Amino acid sequence: MAGVQYSGVRESRSNRFNDLGTTGKEVEENFKKGCLKRADRSFAQGLQCQQINSMAALMSLEDAVFISHSPQGCIGCTIMAVDMYRVGQAHRGIKNIKNPRIIVTNLDQKSVVFGGEQKLRESVKKAVERYSPKVAFIYSSCASGIIGDDIDAIAGDLQDEYPDTVMVPIHCEGFKSKICASGFDAAFLAINKYILRKKKIEKEAGLVNLFAPTTVSYADQKEMERMLGLLGAKVNYIPFYSSLEKIKRIPAAEASTSICKVFADEFMKTLEEDYDIPYSHTVMPIGIRNTDKWYRGIASVIGKEKEVEEIIAKEHERIEPLVARLRERLQGKRVFICGGTGRSFAAAALIDDFGMELAGLETPTYDADAQVDIEYLNGIHKDFVVDIANMQPFEQVNLVNKLRPDAFIGVPEWAAKLGIPTTHVLDGKRPTMGYDGLLYLGNKIADQLQNPGFNVKLSQHVKLPYRDSWYGEDAFKYIMK
Ligand code: SF4
């Protein structure tokens, strides 16, 4: 509803669904008819929680500290984002690689009974005095949210005491949402409230905000910047590997776009409402079709429709012979894809460039955006299985074991142990995007197919934690209809 501020919880938008086992055709029809319902699982493995996404989104900001007001375990998952941050530094030529400054207040039983505000106050003070950061992000968690510790009031008090550090409380209690992308929204809502503060600043000619999550490799950053540079844009690449200064420049931009479909999409709407910044929200630029679509989207917002067509024509001329060579190696191979919402659908479109067939797709959520992609995919692939799941590897191994695809693209951990050739598409270490990224990715998939030895040996020596009987069951038996 107009005028009502977005809560940061993705489920609060209508027509968003998680927890569903279906096929491409079925989900398209049922969404059209309005027959999809929010479901649940009677058994579920751990979900990716929104707190990790709130932390990961900002973890590479310079001169920042991250204080998690939670039990110790909550920050366990940050290890993945820390790894991305460290690798990202190496790729950027940094010799003394740093860890992010993550501090946890260590809420325990006593804090839950008597309150944990004192612990938070002391932790923030120590963090500021020890590191003199420009910005301190204070994250809530399930435990601190349930006991009602007032992180905003504490941030407000400490802001007066430490005026040189911007205090940013972020409400990302894991129980609020089953859609982990809500964590990105919580982080951006806080950035708008505590850093940008709805202040309009002078516009910079040609400046474009390019929002990028932690999983974007340095090679992909350079490719996206190259492509936008060809359109004459100056890029403000945020928040991955940026700084408080770059965040403060956001309102100066003439346009915004995001590399990922579920990253900063809600924030870009807010930027348009609060700072008059138009935006492009299309697809993730993986594969020829999606790269073209992404590129045309931002070009039309900045009035470069003619220029973009000339560039696309040249790029196609350059890459199409190379894609044709890859097609000879990959044609007809069946693929299972698993990634975030943006990447899963983008990768499914990419495999069409190489003449591969989609056997199954796992993605965390389904909504009107996903419907557009599914309609397109149903037009080019025969029937394929769709698993709407935030994590839930038990369903994935069941499906992959039954479908026995020739290749698996996505987070490879489980499929690799089944001996299937795998290619990591959520790879912050290598190129996957834009015109150059698709060639690299195609070659990587083809090389894996040619030499699957490592995964084959792995499957002979590693046992997945499921009983044999599970592989004979319906993968979706725990999804309550
Ligand atoms: S915030 Fe909640 S859901 Fe997230 S890790 Fe902590 S306890 Fe788990």
Determine the strand fraction and express it as a percent band: 5-15%
CATH topology of the largest domain: Rossmann fold
Helix content: 40-55%
- Identify the bound ligands: iron/sulfur cluster
The name of the CATH architecture of the largest domain is 3-Layer(aba) Sandwich
Largest sheet: 6 strands, mixed
Adjacency order of strands in the biggest sheet: 1-13-12-11-14-15
Low-confidence parts lasting 5 or more residues at pLDDT below 50?
A: none
How many individual domains? 3
What is the rounded Rg? 22 Å
* Helix run count: 20
The level-1 CATH class of the largest domain: Alpha Beta
Class per helix and strand makeup: alpha/beta
| Assigned CATH superfamily of the largest domain | Nitrogenase molybdenum iron protein domain
> What sort of overall outline do the alpha carbons produce when their principal axes are compared?
globular
Mean pLDDT over the full residue set: 94
Describe the structure.
This protein is α/β, with parallel strands linked by helices. It folds into three domains: 50-196, Rossmann fold; 207-306, Rossmann fold (3-Layer(aba) Sandwich); 307-480, Rossmann fold, CATH 3.40.50. 47% of the residues lie in helices and 14% in strands. It is built from 20 helices and 16 strands. It has helices at residues 24-33, 50-58, 78-91, 109-114, 117-131, 142-147, 151-161, 182-196, 218-230, 244-248, 265-275, 288-301, 305-330, 341-353, 368-380, 393-403, 413-417, 434-450, 453-461, 468-472; strands at residues 20-23, 40-41, 64-68, 101-104, 135-139, 166-170, 207-212, 234-239, 255-258, 279-280, 334-338, 357-363, 385-388, 407-410, 422-423, 479-480. It has a six-stranded mixed β-sheet with strand order 1-13-12-11-14-15, with helices on both faces. Helix 11 (265-275) links the parallel strand 9 and strand 10 (279-280). Helix 2 (50-58) crosses helix 8 (182-196), helix 9 (218-230) packs antiparallel against helix 18 (434-450) and helix 12 (288-301) runs antiparallel to helix 13 (305-330). The longest helix is centred in the middle third of the chain and has 26 residues, at 305-330. It starts with 19 loop residues before the first strand and ends with a strand.
